[in-house]
Amino acid sequence: MMSACAVQFKRELSIARRRGSEWINPLLFQSLVIVLFPLGISPRPDLLATIAPGLLWVTALLAMLLSLDALFRGDFADGSLEQMLLSSQPLAALCLAKTFAHWLLTGLPLALLAPVLGLLLSLPVTGIATLVTALLLGSVTFSLLGAIGAALTVSLPRGGVLLSLLILPFYIPVLIFGAGAVTAAISGGSVAAPLALLGAMLALALASAPFAIASALRISVNG
Question: Which pTM does this prediction carry?
């Protein structure tokens, strides 16, 4: 099983190299929003520092949504998805490997880019470490939950809007606690509770999401 997951993971990275624009677009989207946002509101550093935690999290969430619709759609179009369903390997494990590759190509770069964008928004240095930690935890949860929605809508011709409607309600708790952790770090409060809740949500998603993704794929392809 581990060998099959490794092969699946390498395949995703190989495909990503050929479709580089699909994974660069989320980074460009977040960067452009952060750069343009002060022009639309105000360049005042105190105002930007106040809204920076929420803005960074919202843009990261929306940027990840941009890449989710293509997570299984290419495999569905070329028949690879049916081969995954017919494989003797556990489908949940293959889905987990595919989702991890998605996070590595999307969520991880967004989390690493966040400190630079935070400084552009005058985010205090005291909140940078918490921002990165919270985004690393939250972005994995985003990928796992988003993959469920992508699996449910993979057979629909225009499932992007429906995917967003399905997934956004489940993203809200992650968004609230993630932005709350950064705000607490800036104000000098304790970040242990929001980070612990983000970790708990990640653990729950890791335990249940791969099986939900596998079931959703079977429903979409066979149903």
Answer: 0.90
